[in-house]
From TrEMBL:
GO terms for biological process: L-proline catabolic process to L-glutamate. PANTHER family: DELTA-1-PYRROLINE-5-CARBOXYLATE DEHYDROGENASE 1, ISOFORM A-RELATED (PTHR42862), DELTA-1-PYRROLINE-5-CARBOXYLATE DEHYDROGENASE 2, ISOFORM A-RELATED (PTHR42862:SF1). This is L-glutamate gamma-semialdehyde dehydrogenase. It catalyses: L-glutamate 5-semialdehyde + NAD(+) + H2O = L-glutamate + NADH + 2 H(+). InterPro entries: Ald_DH/histidinol_DH, Ald_DH_C, Ald_DH_CS_CYS, Ald_DH_N, Aldehyde_DH_dom, Proline_metab_enzyme. The lineage of its organism: Eukaryota, Metazoa, Porifera, Demospongiae, Heteroscleromorpha. The keyword Nucleus does not apply. It comes from Geodia barretti. Pfam families: Aldedh (PF00171). One of its GO terms (molecular function) is L-glutamate gamma-semialdehyde dehydrogenase activity.
Length: 289
């Protein structure tokens, strides 16, 4: 089910492990909180999760809310509704009452907006874009109790600094894992690479060679390293970004994709920028700049 979002098999296995870790961690937290005399649950928590971690973040938000004694309405991103439905089904099978965890699929602009504007909601856990988090915050301010919390995890622009003391082989390995795993569609992905001048030529040569060895293709194929982008809209937006960067002579390297690929693919690419201030927003894609 996780692969409805285009995750490779390796990414999917890693996410299942992360979801299990969340369950274990918050089960222990429930025991700890039970011993606190002043702890009390808030009520109904809406958990709104993203498509790029359709099992791990969805499970983590729900189990955290349950551990604190709340009931939960789980609304996954519309692109990953099947994974969310299966996750809730499994929760019910292991004994969590159906009236404690309820599944509510739908589009963010309709279902998500109604949840954040409902005065019966006692708090919201949200992972997604900064713009969406601001919209939820404003909606809650109008409708929800003043003490209802919003726990929002939004995008990121993450950097790596490689100086002359670094081992280039190790640096390239970490760059590849961070920038291109999950096709770069994660807030923790490497976006900006700062390289000391003395290291640049050697490091980039190794990096381009490593990118060339990446297998881009069907996420169901166990040998695939980089799968597709989530949907057509995202692909179009990102290809436009690639074309703009190339027109500005910023393209350093771009992996050529097979003409036989079927899906929403974007080529792994490296662009040159002067610094992180040139990035106006999070670019969720297999890029390194």
């Amino acid at each position: 089910m996780i692969q409805e979002t285009g995750k490779t098999i390796a990414d999917s296995i890693s996410e299942v492990r992360e979801a299990v870790d969340f369950c274990r961690f918050y089960a222990n937290e429930a025991i700890r909180l039970e011993c606190l005399p002043d702890h009390c649950a808030r009520g109904v928590i809406a958990c709104i999760s993203p498509w790029n971690f359709p099992l791990a973040i969805f499970t983590g938000q729900i189990t955290a809310s349950l551990a604190a004694g709340n009931s939960v309405i789980g609304k996954p991103a519309e692109q990953s509704s099947l994974t969310g439905a299966r996750a809730v089904e499994l929760m019910h099978q292991v004994g969590i009452p159906k009236d404690v965890v309820q599944f509510l699929p739908g589009y963010g602009e309709t279902v998500g907006a109604m949840l954040s504007a409902d005065e019966r909601i006692s708090g919201i856990c949200f992972t997604g874009s900064t713009d969406a988090a601001i919209a939820i915050y404003r909606s809650m301010a109008k409708s929800c109790d003043i003490e209802a919390p919003l726990i929002a995890e939004t995008g990121g622009l993450n950097a790596m600094i490689v100086d002359s003391t670094a081992l280039p082989e190790q640096a390239v390995k970490d760059i590849i894992a961070s920038a291109f795993q999950s096709a770069g569609q994660r807030c923790s992905a490497l976006r900006i690479l700062y390289v000391q001048n003395e290291m640049e030529s050697r490091l980039l040569k190794m990096l381009f060679g490593a990118i060339e060895q990446l297998r881009v293709g069907d996420p169901w194929d166990i040998s695939t390293d980089v799968g597709p982008i989530i949907d057509e809209h995202a692909q179009s937006d990102l290809l436009d970004y690639c074309n703009r960067m190339e027109s500005e002579n910023r393209l350093l390297y771009q992996r050529e994709l097979s003409a036989h690929l079927d899906g929403y693919f974007v080529p792994p690419s490296v662009f040159r920028v002067s610094g992180i201030e040139e990035l106006e927003r999070e670019i969720s894609d297999p890029f390194c700049m």
